[in-house]
Design goal:
- The complex is a heterodimer.
- Chain A is an all-beta fold.
- In chain A, about 0% of the residues lie in helices and about 55% in strands.
- Chain A has strands spanning about 5, 10-15, 20-25, 30-40, 40-50, 55, 65-70, 75-80, 90-95, 105, 110.
- Chain A is globular, with a radius of gyration of 13 Å.
- In chain A, about 35% of the residues are buried.
- Chain B is about 0% helix and about 60% strand.
- Chain B contains no helices and eleven strands.
- Chain B has strands spanning about 5, 10-15, 20-25, 30-40, 45-50, 55-60, 60-65, 70-75, 85-90, 100, 105-110.
- The N and C termini of chain B lie far apart (about 40 Å).
- Classes of the chains: A mainly beta, B mainly beta.
Chain lengths: ~110, ~110
Amino acid sequence: DAGVIQSPRHEVTEMGQEVTLRCKPISGHDYLFWYRQTMMRGLELLIYFNNNVPIDDSGMPEDRFSAKMPNASFSTLKIQPSEPRDSAVYFCASSLGASEKLFFGSGTQLSVL
Amino acid sequence: EDQVTQSPEALRLQEGESSSLNCSYTVSGLRGLFWYRQDPGKGPEFLFTLYSAGEEKEKERLKATLTKKESFLHITAPKPEDSATYLCAVQANSNYQLIWGAGTKLIIKP
């Protein structure tokens, strides 16, 4: 298996622009997580899905952030409009079961100028 | 409040010099404690899960142990390729969200 695949690897955009991050989880995994990592705050859970259904989005910073999972093999995290404070590494992870180990993608390094 | 604290923040060792990393936690009912390794530019990679006090797990030069208040990641005779940031996370019985520590950056000098 190729593992969790995220795209793009790097995204540089200007404040106010829309940003879409993409994730393909490992086939067969029923949980998908979106995390954000910064030096100041470490790893923060933004939202997670179970069988394509959003379960907990309490970590989403504000209404500018939205996430979808239209099918078992694809998820998106959208930021509209983007702000400089959104600059971070965004990780997608998947797991087989809620209490099982997470498999992380390589992340998307987002820079908002 | 559920909390995870890792120490030290950074650790520099000579190749072959054994040491331990600490993960102290406060959680209302532990479901599991997880150790991950993160290399620069990559996502965290799973190492171990521990479920109950007294449990130990080993993988190559790494051994993880668990008590009711903390976990240790022991590194025996480390090599430069063991250099990475080691992250600890706990999962409470009350929900499935992982609570992450800030990590320990380990540097092994040849």
